[in-house]
Specification:
Elements (H helix, E strand, L loop, with lengths): L1 H4 L3 H10 L5 H9 L4 H19 L4 H52 L6 H4 L19 H4 L2 E2 L2 E8 L2 E8 L8 E6 L5 E4 L9 E2 L2
Antiparallel strand pairs: 1-2, 2-3, 3-4, 4-5, 5-6
């Protein structure tokens, strides 16, 4: 300690600069200066606070860039998601038409004729009621109500049997195709808002 007092201010300052980013600065300054310890603690806390402020968060430009990238991704992904959803609903509607065809075969086997409405193929209206020609219980209640998988379904009587049609609830949103089938069990489709018919293309 006595040797350090005899040195010039420049020489005494050198060790302090050398120890700037080490834990020795506080100890050295406390030894060479009469300042209270709280002074050095406050300086250290201030430096930590400044360092955290510099490292905290994104700048406005960085946030704008991130938002722009997200918007570009959404503009590409959302239309594809919509198409995939419609395709899924169309596949479900085709499956529902097949279900109706199978129910019509069973209905004809039990009652000797084809059902002329979806209600006749559906379950009884009240719990515990017996099944019969008016409520055969061959298809789910929602399908018997005429709506399922984003499509509306109808059955009409024809001279040779029956015809079932499926039309999207909202064309271009819940589906892009309409479907048709009859007692032949062949399912046909039409790409457009016009209902498919017996002359429409067969789904292979």
């Amino acid at each position: 300690m006595g040797n350090l007092k005899g040195l010039s201010p420049v020489i005494r300052q050198a060790p302090r600069e050398f120890a700037l980013h080490t834990g020795a600065q506080l100890s050295l300054e406390t030894t060479l200066s009469p300042r209270p310890t709280s002074y050095y603690v406050n300086r250290m806390l201030l430096r930590v606070s400044e360092r955290r402020r510099r490292q905290r968060g994104f700048s406005l430009i960085e946030l704008l860039i991130v938002i722009a990238i997200i918007l570009v991704i959404l503009s590409i992904a959302l239309p594809q998601m919509g198409k995939a959803r419609m395709h899924s609903q169309e596949m479900a509607a085709i499956a529902e038409v097949r279900t109706i065809n199978q129910a019509e075969v069973q209905y004809q086997s039990q009652f000797g004729q084809y059902a002329t409405s979806l209600t006749q193929l559906g379950p009884p209206n009240s719990a515990g009621a017996a099944e019969g020609p008016q409520n055969a219980g061959l298809i789910p209640a929602n399908l018997a109500g005429g709506s399922a998988s984003g499509y509306n379904f109808t059955i009409t009587q024809t001279p040779t049997g029956y015809a079932v049609t499926a039309i999207p609830k909202t064309f271009g949103s819940t589906g892009r195709r309409t479907f048709y089938s009859d007692q032949s069990a062949i399912i046909r489709e039409n790409w457009g808002q016009e209902p498919a018919s017996a002359q429409s293309s067969e789904i292979k």
